[in-house]
Amino acid sequence: MAMATSRISKYDEYGFERPEDFDYALYEDFMSQYLKVLALRSKKWSSIMASPKGLKKSSSLKADIRKGIPLEHREKVWLFVSGANEERKKYRGDIYSDLTIVEDRDLADTIRTDLPRTFPENIYFNKSEESEGPNFQKQLFRVLVAYGQHNRKVGYCQGMNYIAGLLLLVTKNEESTFWLLKMLVEKILPDYYSRTMDGLLTDIDVISELVRLRYPDVSAHMSNLSFPWPVITTKWFICLFCEVLPTETVLRIWDCLFNEGSKVLFRVALTIISLHRAEILACEQFVDLSECLKGIIKGPSTLYCHKFLEQIFKVPGKLSLKDLNKMRNNMSKTRHMRK
Amino acid sequence: MANRSGPQRPNGTAQAKICQFKLVLLGESAVGKSSLVLRFVKGQFHEFQESTIGAAFLTQTVCVDDTTVKFEIWDTAGQERYHSLAPMYYRGAQAAIVVYDVTNQDTFGRAKTWVKELQRQASPNIVIALAGNKADLANKRSVELEEAQAYAEENQLLFMETSAKTAKNVNEVFLAIAKKLPKNDQNVNPSVPVNITAWLTICVLRAGHF
Q1: What is the pTM of this model?
Q2: ipTM for this model
Q3: Domain named Rab-GAP TBC: which ranges (chain A) (predicted)?
């Protein structure tokens, strides 16, 4: 796998340039463990994918997804578990190519502005027009225009560029990216990206309420420092942890997100807060807390993605979709009443 | 962590006091809000600055006479739909920089809308600066200097054309704000320890045009 050779490279296996303060020693240690995990998972998934019955949603598939889908199978498995394959059948013909023809010039202009601002540190995105090799900027443009024209209610929301961008890096296929983006925006996530961002505002309230209920000391501390939750959580929800956590960790989270839905995002958020409770409580100033949170997301707790993924299903305890949706309803009602 | 501001210095000389202010950057997407902050805080410029999702938070200090002014800078997302989150960031802000792109008339219109909103909904004494960014692209300008200047005067805003790329007027705009902010006791924060490394404290008194 490409991963093994990337260890000493300036770029990671997805083409992202490693930051200047990248901790190579920590990463080496992580990879020395993770390569073994990957080898085992690769074997297991080869047999799953070779099964003559094909993929079938089941508790054992769920367990295997939680342990990570190998990169080479992600596109296929995500398309299946997200329901994208089924969704696609509802449409006649090749709707994607038709949608890539620019009709909405304003939409196209808005997207064009964000193209060079999407993963400028990634070798697949920062290519100039003339250079050879894959140039995901053009593909990203087509995917975002197609989706914006397909779903006019949403159009284009900043943040979708990162999601579609990472989907392209994984699937290397713009049509698959389009369908996966559609599933995320319309089926898997609440109304995050529409013009009112209603679902986002609700989920921001829900996460602060969940923290208040589960980690009251953290919640009280953050309000003492007048730290508004949206400062950190907006990006967590909008980008689905992309551009926040290490790429491999993000993709492991997305494995579960496509299969289990948006409550996974809350599990991740609660786990980060729970694992770093003491550090958060030790911050005496707003500024310290902001720095502390920046450090946390770059640190070992989330880098060791295999362990982190185990933790997200243990650390926060029970979190049912039913309870979550109830809470979403209540929070949304309260917010609209406040208006 | 030891140095503290305030008059309690043993030798009795008046030490520089430290004032802390919350400053928010507002303006249309891609006008250069994050770039202005990056230039001001780290002295850097990226041709392609990633789009800001939600908001980013940074700090920087400037020295004005005998006062150290510490800015808590809130850099916000520019896209229209993120507007509903903006009040959270400008609430309680003592200063705002409303940014437009001198090459794009629409962004100037949007800047005016932000100014109006701040005048209506932000703290009544908020110091607002209007920054016409991308001044290095003046040959492509679509917003005339005089037009913006007149608007700023009418609305009692500080005004400068800036360039995050060349650093033109970047420190200056923050410094002008720092000078205009009231440095009374209310904003002096004696409990704030002077921790140079954590604050990235650099006195940007390079300006001197004032």
Answers
A1: 0.90
A2: 0.90
A3: 68-261
